[in-house]
Prior knowledge:
Blueprint: H1 10-14, E1 26-28, H2 32-50, E2 58-63, H3 74-80, E3 88-91, E4 99-106, E5 115-123, E6 128-136
Amino acid sequence: MASFIGHATPAEADMLGDVSAPTERQLMGLTVGEADALISKLETAQEGLRNDKLQSFELLAGSVASYDQSKVSARDVFLSVPFQEVWEVKRIVSDNRLSQPFRLSYAPNGLGKLFWDITVVVGFSGQIERVEMIYKAPAPF
């Protein structure tokens, strides 16, 4: 399979072999409690969507056009992610005092394989404002 410029094909990403995600969640710039609170907000939002409760945050999801994940709706992607299995959570440094972005990584098939790169923006009031999910190949692709 030929890869697109800057993007691995799913087969190329799978050639790296199976590497399990760390058993302990990797945190950068936040505490265990802050990471747990963020994940709880995401799970609450999932539950709200499942129960048809209004969720006012922006939700985007996508992938390289040729990957199968580009065929799945953003809502279905969001509802399918087991946020307790996110293996990395980072606070993104921002000068905006009204919102705080975070980056989460979820590797459903293990490290070194295609994964969900998830950006979550939490507003000043502590509510989720935006969730953006990109399914992509790991570095160095």
